[in-house]
Amino acid sequence: MQVLLAEDDRAVRESLTRALNLEGYDTRAVSNGAMALDALREQPAELVILDVSMPVVDGLTVCRVLRSENNQVPILMLTARTETSDRVAGLDAGADDYLPKPFDLDELFARMRALSRRAQLDTEPGDDRRDDAFELGDLRLEPAGRRVVRGSREIDLSKTEFDLLELLVRNAGIVLDHTTIYERIWNYDFGPDSKNLAVYVGYLRRKTEEGGEARLIHTVRGVGYVARVDTT
Question: In CATH terms, are 2-123 and 128-227 the same topology?
Fold first, then answer.
């Protein structure tokens, strides 16, 4: 796999590059966001690792630019910021996953493998089930075109957001526990202390309820989440 790493801290950049190469990744490393954009335009990557805080152009801006250019390369954000709002900003910009610093290399590699598997599944032909459209109330989800519409309003979702919404809508009325969702979406259970899933659910709710619509994604405390239309 060809990986582009953008990290302004030289020591971190060099140590990560060594670790990635030892794991068999073909790694290019740059020190700021502007160089990352130039490198991707010159030669595409299969996965991008971006530090949030970089000089010249920061990681969030790189995400926004890539998504505005319809570049759907999987993006993993590295951030020293621990506030939920900071993590949501990364998802808002189009990142597929985030990893707070300091992190364990095993977890980094696990998240990279999960992003890679999801990207491969999206490009595999022959799954006619993904051509079916699903409806939940006034929300319509079209897997083949990766399109979501609620009422007359089209909703723009990142890759991970779409995958999560599709999983919930396909299983409407069924409560999915945290472990099941992590394994189906990330192919890895990050454990009970991870806030990853809660952040994505919150972000989906904001997008699907942006026009004042009723909630479709509900929390089942102590268990997980369920997609359903409340009739009360």
Answer: no
Beta strand segments in 22-173, E: 26-30, 47-51, 75-79, 97-100, 134-136, 139-142, 147-150, 153-155
**In the chain, at which residue ranges do the beta strands (DSSP E only) sit?**
2-6, 26-30, 47-51, 75-79, 97-100, 134-136, 139-142, 147-150, 153-155, 176-177, 217-220, 224-227
Q: How far apart are CA 119 and CA 121, in angstroms?
A: 6
User: How do the domains of the chain map onto residue ranges?
Assistant: 2-123, 128-227
The Cα angle at residue 106 between residues 104 and 107, in degrees rounded to 5: 70
At residue 185, the pLDDT reads: 81
Strand pairing of 2-6 and 26-30?
Answer: parallel
Say if CB 101 and CB 77 are below 8 A apart.
Answer: no
Residue with tokens 């919150």: 202
- Token look-up 């994505």 returns 200
Task: Report pLDDT for 128.
Answer: 46
Q: What is the tally of helices (H) and strands (E) in the chain? A: 8, 12
pLDDT of 174 above 50? yes
- CATH architecture of the domain with residue range 128-227: Orthogonal Bundle (1.10)
Q: The dihedral of CA 114, 116, 119, 120: what is its sign?
A: negative
> Domain 2-123 is in which class?
alpha beta
